[in-house]
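Practice problem 4.
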């Protein structure tokens, strides 16, 4: 996933909807990133302003309505995907979108009991 995002970055493309549903494995277990409907092209150093993607995977700067570096927002979403793969649940969940956003902005999440506390 990180290699795919790095490759897209070299092409000047930001995905903007990185989530498990947009990641597939082929018969050789190679990861394929799909659904570029929200993607955009950018120039080095250019910031983006359109907030898009799935709320549970949204980077804090998107939630705040700030301009953002596309690759960094994609990397945040990739981190949420990786957390979910390891723990079996999203780090930030809430049926109320505003409560969800507050959890993301305040980094309120819990590790499951089978992960060590060391960082």
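Answer key:
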């Amino acid at each position: 996933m990180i290699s795919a995002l790095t490759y897209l970055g070299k092409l000047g493309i930001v995905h903007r909807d990185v989530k498990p549903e947009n990641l597939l494995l082929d018969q050789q277990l190679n990861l394929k990133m799909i659904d570029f409907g929200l993607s955009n092209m950018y120039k080095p150093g250019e910031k983006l302003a359109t907030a898009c993607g799935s709320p549970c995977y949204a980077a804090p700067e998107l939630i705040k309505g700030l301009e953002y570096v596309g690759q960094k927002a994609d990397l945040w979403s990739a981190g949420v995907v990786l957390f979910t793969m390891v723990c079996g649940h999203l780090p930030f969940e809430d049926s109320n979108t505003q409560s969800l956003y507050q959890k993301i902005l305040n980094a309120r999440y819990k590790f499951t009991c089978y992960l060590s506390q060391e960082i």
